[in-house]
Amino acid sequence: MNYYTWLVFWNYKGKTFVSGVYAQRSKGRKKPESVSDLFNTTSCIPKPYRCPHRQIQFFLYTRRTQENPELLDTTDVDSLYNSQFNRAYPTKIVIHGFGGGRMYSPSTDMRDAYFYRGNYNIIIVDYGTLVKEPCLKQMEWAPRFCAKCIAQLIHYLTHHPRGVRADDLHLIGYSVGAHIGGLVSNYLDPVRHGKLGRITGLDPTIVFYMGQNASRDLDASDAHFVDILHTGAGILGQWGPNGHADFYINGGSSQPGCASDTVFKTLACDHTKVTPYFIESIVTRKGFWAYPCPTLVSFMLGWCNPEDNQYVLMGEHVNRESRGIYYVKTNPDPPYAQGAPAHIKRRALQILKRMT
Ligand SMILES: [Ca+2]
């Protein structure tokens, strides 16, 4: 796959940040050459800008339809009736990042992991063409537009006789998709739709970080439970914390096995490593056991001294009562989960049994 990268430098509270964007090279089109070009490219999305939009599609996957997903049409009540959607199963709405799509990892690997475990309704939001170069101008508004259309899907699901409540939905967003997940709540009405059950943010990218403005960012008010996994924090990922529970994996900003010959490859590797960690958390029998620590430095030095009952599972099977900042170590290669330390092994096994 042919990719190139944009770096955007900016200042926030006196500190300089650098953000990167992966974009897929499209043949025969002039690529933007500067940051100002980046924001001045013409729109690539056909008007009208209304939801539903044919470039934001919702593909339903179930165990029965793993190879032949069903396209959900939010304007047609029969679409859900005629699909394999089953309200008895957990429903996941997966929102990819830049250059993503339903046919690419992590969407594909995540589906495989869930279906290995059991029955799920997995809805992949495919909006790949919205965030493809040279459409990057749309970085400013495409996430909001995409969020609006996902909110329409949620309206459809919550008002359909065979649908589910918003509380029963779990949104999983990677990179910019994590922000889109947070923005969805801006378009939901607490009375008509209720509140989303859970949003998992997989290394939300810093590009859209709006500082203190929670309505433009993923934050704890966006769902009953918001858990965030950080792997490239401070560079490509935002530092946070932003959720009810924030997990800083291997310290949160640099991942083992990611050292590379170029700085950017290393940074991109840190950022993307979050998805294999989360995917493994769906199927793991060992578990990623995370714990609080007074500071990042003490974690890095191995000076944390958590109580036995402070250990929590990170990832898919997290306890929704978890609150605050947690740290966790992984192996450099798969399987990444290190399991529970010996002194909590018995308790950990009981929890794993209950949660998984
Ligand atoms: Ca928000």
TrEMBL record:
Molecular function in Gene Ontology: lipase activity; serine hydrolase activity
Gene Ontology cellular component terms for the protein in this record: extracellular space
Residue ranges of domain Lipase in the record: 49-322
Keywords noted in UniProt: Secreted
Signal peptide: none
Biological process, per Gene Ontology: lipid catabolic process
Xref: Pfam families: Lipase
Coiled-coil parts of chain: none
Compartments (UniProt record): Secreted
Keyword Methyltransferase tagged: no
UniProt similarity note: Belongs to the AB hydrolase superfamily. Lipase family.
Protein name as it appears in the record: Lipase domain-containing protein
Organism: Exocentrus adspersus
